Write the structure tokens for this entry.
Amino acid sequence: MDLVESGRNVIELESRALQQVAASLGKEFADAVRMIYACKGRVIVTGVGKAGIVGQKVSATLASTGTPSYWMHAVDARHGDLGRVLPEDIVLVLSNSGETEVVQLLVPLKKINTKIIAITGNRASTLAKYSDMVLDIGRIEEACPLGLAPTCTTTAMLALGDALALTLFKMRELTKEDYALYHPGGELGRKLIKVCDAMRINERNPVVPQSATVREAVKAMSTKGSPGAVSLVDEKGKLVGVFTDGDLRRQVLKAGPGLLDRPVCEVMTRNPRTVKADDLAAEAYRVMRECRIDNLPVVNDSGVPVGLIDVQDWLDVERGFDVP
């Protein structure tokens, strides 16, 4: 027995099954997409056995691409979970034969008056008969040597579910930022977090006039939640400098007595690097890394400080913590 050839044969059979499903897509697929797009409720996915496992993945893909969805086990549905289904929902049922235990849900679902979309390989089945829309994968040869274990059929169902989800994704015209909203813990979500989502505001963003003394500036940047930095503004409220813990330490070493009573404008860092609230937090971190600084003032279009982002805030984002 050639083990590699056996494995290759399975993959080729599944590939042919996918080509068959792709070639068979037509008006019913388009109608199903439009039906889900217009749905005011959720897409509830159900099934049993291997088809049910595929259904869990399809439901997850729908939800992560902007179509509200959850998985409902067909057996649990018969013991009370049907109470989760509302008339405005759509139930997506996966069953190759169309004659599994899922058929026991069909009459109750019709009484609830919810729409049913079937993904099946048997257009003459009970499931197909009771469904409002049938996505037929056709008769597909399984890769199992006995022709029994679901293989090619489940692959076809999975691909068809992905086709539904991603076609809907395109119709919704969602952006990377929209996608990141559903994936805040993932790599993409972290990359697309904006400065406004991570910056410190209000009392955690101390701001004092440049005429303040060093003592007053130190007091302001010592408040709870402050990262050890204070933004300094002119009489119009525009940012003119920053003063940090590092600045204080350096001045203590060379300024001598009387430092705390000097105007902070004499020792502040003038014309600091800044970012905007709509900039990506990853870009702010790049600036901090390249300039070897720990804090960046966040300013609006008028140059007025509206926040402060600290290197620790980015590290919290990287670790997946919520930034307060």
Residues 276 and 298 are 5 Å apart (CA to CA). The domain at 3-174 is CATH 3.40.50.10490 (Rossmann fold). The chain has two domains: 3-174, 191-318.
